[in-house]
Amino acid sequence: MSTAEIHRQITADEIAHTFEEEATPKVDLGIYAFEDWVALAIFWVMALAVFLQFFTRYVLNDSYAWTEEIATYCLIGVVFIGASMCVRLSRHIQVDLVYRYLPHLVARALSTVIDLIRIAFFGYAIKLVWVYIQIIGDEQMTTINFPKNYVYYAVLLGFVLMFVRSLQAALQHWRQGYSVLERPGAYDGSEI
């Protein structure tokens, strides 16, 4: 028995047609929401600030101090506005093991209570951040003459978006009769 591989000769036309068969996939930007674009814009401002910090420190040997502060504040915005994406997509860390062993009605009731607690938490966080903004008022950033309250407005926007998205998620859970806690496979595509 021979172990030599047998290759079939193919023509140039067959090679050319293999490239035609693969259609370019359609790009669907409709799956992204407002907070996705805002977080992306803030992320790129942060990336540019970090790059400028790196460039001025290691290439010019004279770093700009303000780039580190801007990058830090941009990271705060990315985290809190990006967290609303996780609320919208039900991607926050959660423990769903308990729900596998609970009766359906108990699991449904517990899931609804968790939705209500989440809504209340984000509502309370909105109040706390608003009070904090009123307290710090016109405090300036350390390296540039710009008020810090704009950073906290980004945090406030993040909590407002999380509050709205948690209301939408709770309404969706109520309409469909289950949540990600009860049927995680329905949310990650593993459920058939």
TrEMBL record:
Subcellular localization(s) per the UniProt record: Cell inner membrane
MF annotations from Gene Ontology: transmembrane transporter activity
Main location: membrane
Top-level taxon in the UniProt lineage: Bacteria
TM ranges: 37-58, 70-89, 109-130, 150-167
Biological process per Gene Ontology, one example term: C4-dicarboxylate transport
Gene Ontology CC: one annotated term: plasma membrane
Domain Tripartite ATP-independent periplasmic transporters DctQ component positions: 46-175
Keywords: Cell inner membrane, Cell membrane, Membrane, Transmembrane, Transmembrane helix, Transport
Membrane topology: Multi-pass membrane protein
Role of this protein: Part of the tripartite ATP-independent periplasmic (TRAP) transport system.
Family to which the UniProt record says this protein belongs: Belongs to the TRAP transporter small permease family.
Subunit and interaction comment: The complex comprises the extracytoplasmic solute receptor protein and the two transmembrane proteins.
Protein name: TRAP transporter small permease protein
Organism: Bradyrhizobium shewense
